[in-house]
Design a protein that fits this description.
Number of helices: 5
Strand content: 5-15%
Order of helices and strands: HHHHEEH
Shape: globular
Helix content: 55-70%
Structural class: mainly alpha
Number of strands: 2
Strand order of the largest sheet: 1-2
Radius of gyration: 16 Å
Length: 115
């Protein structure tokens, strides 16, 4: 199991472990951002519901990402299933504008055409 990226410790792309780089390292892991996004938009979900919503995620990857997101303090388990914590919701709210910017970038590339 890969070590959870933490601010202040070396992470992918940063020897100093700048907090933003630690966050990008964690969220850049396969399906990490998708799991947080899905929970933030869909509310509490059981493991099986979350796996169905994420479509192609394997049970082992989902289990790993949930463990990492719980350890990071972004997700917790409630009586109704997995839910984002207030910190997880805050991270999600910051990702939404980034998603819009990514769509703008995609459109700009489409308009530009091939190089």
């Amino acid at each position: 199991m890969a070590k959870l990226p933490k601010p202040g410790q070396p992470v992918r792309g940063s020897r100093s472990g700048a907090p933003i780089m630690a966050l990008f390292d964690l969220l850049g892991r396969r399906w990490a951002m998708g799991v947080l996004w899905t929970l933030s938009e869909g509310g509490a979900m059981t493991f099986r519901e979350l796996q169905d919503r994420c479509e192609t995620i394997s049970p082992s990857v989902l289990n790993q990402r949930l463990s990492e997101l719980k350890e990071a303090g972004f997700v917790t388990r409630s009586e109704r299933g997995y839910v984002p914590t207030p910190l997880g919701e805050r991270i999600y709210r910051h990702l939404v504008p980034l998603g819009a910017a990514a769509r703008d970038w995609s459109a700009a590339l489409d308009q530009r055409g091939p190089d």
